[in-house]
TrEMBL record:
Domain HTH lysR-type: residue ranges: 2-59
Keywords, alphabetical: DNA-binding, Transcription, Transcription regulation
Record family assignment: Belongs to the LysR transcriptional regulatory family.
Organism of this sequence: Serratia liquefaciens
InterPro entries associated with the record: LysR-type_TF_proteobact-type (IPR058163), LysR_HTH_N (IPR000847), LysR_subst-bd (IPR005119), WH-like_DNA-bd_sf (IPR036388), WH_DNA-bd_sf (IPR036390)
Gene3D superfamilies (UniProt xref): 3.40.190.290, Winged helix-like DNA-binding domain superfamily/Winged helix DNA-binding domain (1.10.10.10)
UniProt-recorded name of the protein: LysR family transcriptional regulator
Coiled-coil annotated residue ranges, if any: none
PANTHER family, per database record: HTH-TYPE TRANSCRIPTIONAL REGULATOR, TRANSCRIPTIONAL REGULATOR, LYSR FAMILY
C-alpha cells in the first residue's frame, strides 16, 4: 500500500538538501525521516538516495520519483486550497516562480503589497534563472520576462506589462556617447549582455522598418541584471538595461542612453499558469493585483 507520508518526507529531504535540514525545518526527528525513507526504498526495492556521513546524493531514479512526489504534494495542497478558497476572501497557498530580474523590476514590492491586501494568502516564492516546468514541479504560477515571440505552449499566458530597454553608458567613463552612433559601432566596443533561456544571443534593433541584429559578444555575460548595471556604471563598457531599472542614474547623469533613434526588440512581463479552468481565486486575485500594480507604476 502506498504511504503518502513516506513520499512527503522523501520530497522534503531532497528539497532541503539533507536529513538534518529537513528535520529542523519541519520539526520531524531525523531518525523518523531516515526510517521512513529506508522503508520507502525497501518497499520500492530501489535506491533513491546515496548517503554519506556529510551529505546525500539523489540517484537518477530518485530524481524521477521526486518529480512525482512534488506533484502529489502540490495536488494535495490544491485540494485544500479548493476548500479554503470557497470563501469570498481569497485564502490558501500559492506557489510562485520567477527570475531574479523581475524582483529587481519591482515584483518584490508588488508581492509585499499583495500580502498586505490578502493576509489569508500564503506565498511560496522560488527564484530560478532557468525554464521551469510549472506542472511537473508543482507551481501555480510563473512570472517571466520574455521577448516579443513567445515559445509555443499549452500553458495560459497573460501579459502583465511591457518593459522598455535602451543601451546605456557612463558618460564619464572610457566610452564617449559619440562613439555609439549606430548599432554596428557595438562591434568595436566592450559590451555587457544578459544571459537567459528566453533571450537571444543577439540584440535586435529596428529603425523605420529596417532590422539589424548585433551578436552579443560581450566581455561580461550573466543572468544578474544588477551586476550588468554595476559594470556599465564603472565606465568600462556599454550595455542594455531596462529603463525602469536606471531611472535614478539617468536622472542624476551617471548613465546616459545611446542609440536613441533605434528601437530594441520589446520585452514583456507575463504570468504563466496551467489553465483558466479551475483557477484558484487566490491565484486569480494575485494576477489581477500584479497587472494593476505594474500599470500604476508605469
Amino acid at each position: 500500500m502506498i504511504d503518502f507520508n513516506e513520499m512527503f518526507m522523501f520530497a522534503k529531504v531532497i528539497e532541503c538538501g539533507g536529513f538534518l535540514a529537513a528535520s529542523k525545518k519541519f520539526g520531524i526527528p531525523k531518525s523518523t525521516l531516515s526510517r521512513k525513507i529506508s522503508a520507502l526504498e525497501q518497499r520500492l526495492n530501489v535506491r533513491l538516495i546515496q548517503r554519506s556521513t556529510r551529505n546525500i546524493m539523489i540517484t537518477e531514479i530518485g530524481k524521477e520519483y521526486y518529480q512525482y512526489c512534488v506533484q502529489m504534494i502540490a495536488a494535495a495542497e490544491k485540494a485544500e486550497n479548493l476548500i479554503n478558497n470557497k470563501s469570498d476572501q481569497p485564502t490558501g497557498k500559492i506557489r510562485i516562480t520567477c527570475p531574479t530580474i523581475l524582483m529587481d523590476l519591482g515584483l518584490s514590492k508588488t508581492l509585499a503589497k499583495f500580502m498586505q491586501a490578502y493576509p489569508e494568502v500564503v506565498l511560496q516564492v522560488k527564484i530560478f534563472n532557468r525554464d521551469v516546468d510549472i506542472i511537473a514541479e508543482g507551481y501555480d504560477i510563473s512570472f517571466q520576462l520574455m521577448g516579443k515571440e513567445s515559445k509555443n505552449s499549452n500553458l495560459i499566458m497573460r501579459k502583465i506589462a511591457s518593459i522598455s530597454s535602451s543601451f546605456m553608458l557612463n558618460p564619464a567613463g572610457r566610452i564617449h556617447p559619440n562613439q555609439v552612433q549606430k548599432p554596428s559601432d557595438l562591434h568595436q566596443l566592450p559590451t555587457v549582455g544578459w544571459l537567459s533561456s528566453h533571450f537571444q544571443s543577439a540584440w535586435t534593433f529596428n529603425k523605420e522598418g529596417r532590422e539589424v541584429k548585433i551578436s552579443n559578444e560581450s566581455c561580461l555575460v550573466c543572468d544578474d541584471i544588477r551586476l550588468l548595471k554595476e559594470a556599465i556604471l564603472c565606465g568600462r563598457a556599454t550595455g542594455c538595461l531596462p529603463l525602469k531599472l536606471a531611472r535614478q542614474e539617468i536622472h542624476d547623469g551617471t548613465l546616459t542612453t545611446v542609440l536613441n533613434d533605434w528601437q530594441l526588440e520589446p520585452r514583456k512581463i507575463v504570468a504563466i499558469y496551467p489553465s483558466r479552468q479551475g483557477l484558484l481565486p487566490a491565484v486569480r486575485a494575485l494576477i489581477d493585483f500584479v497587472v494593476e500594480d505594474f500599470a500604476q507604476d508605469g
